[in-house]
Amino acid sequence: xxxxxxxxxxxxxxxxxxxxxxxxxxxxxxxxxxxxxxxxxxxxxxxxxxxxxxxxxxxxxxxxxxxxxxxxxxxxxxxxxxxxxxxxxxxxxxxxxxxxxxxxxxxxxxxxxxxxxxxxxxxxxxxxxxxxxxxxxxxxxxxxxxxxxxxxxxxxxxxxxxxxxxxxxxxxxxxxxxxxxxxxxxxxxxxxxxxxxxxxxxxxxxxxxxxxxxxxxxxxxxxxxxxxxxxxxxxxxxxxxxxxxxxxxxxxxxxxxxxxxxxxxxxxxxxxxxxxxxxxxxxxxxxxxxxxxxxxxxxxxxxxxxxxxxxx
Length: 312
Ligand code: CP
Prior knowledge:
This protein is an alpha/beta fold.
């Protein structure tokens, strides 16, 4: 595999899940594969899980990870073509990506959206530029519109915890104080569309995600109706897609409470704001899968790195 930037880079989800579970059972089985190989992790935005789990995955494979908070510590990067660089940017992505490719055998990038310019965000300017100008394989550690490492993680977690052949999975919008990206929701939808699950989305009116991504997945504007007979409830906030990047509702009625879940397991990518998105009683109950989900980030990343290294 030459890149992992989108859920569509997964050629066969069931076999990926099976392989990730085998890696989880024996994480150090491929220590020779990554020997003398360097993984460069470039963060334009904050992270806890992605930063640590991807390094851990690299170490499990015998790789050497190196990390840079690129927007804070590097020169300001210019992405425009033919720009006269007499402003705040000091280095063009053409040189930056090519130079990082001299030091690293694989590059992983995190770059969030602006949430002010839909067209620019959907062009995936940063990811696309790295794909174009880097000369080594690229991994998306959450871009403007997708978080495929999280999507793969979530599929592994559902597969591990289901007691049914075809569980019901609900992706529910939940309130938040800040305008958040659509990336996690998008990748979760795209992953569930590849999985043998009964999948629905619940969000207030005005919060429907990109129809090119939701496609024919049922969308409920009534959370209670959507949660009926659910086996997994995945909560996530996102800002409006239609009124791009705006918060149009902060209705606390959409917060996930224990009595809403019934028998359903609770999932969230983390970080989560307690008693805003979900109440303490859910996170502190045996319904919650959030810590196991975070643990599985390592094995999703390890599988992706393994597939890239095997292709080398
Ligand atoms: N879920 C997730 O991507 O967490 P971080 O933002 O902490 O990496």
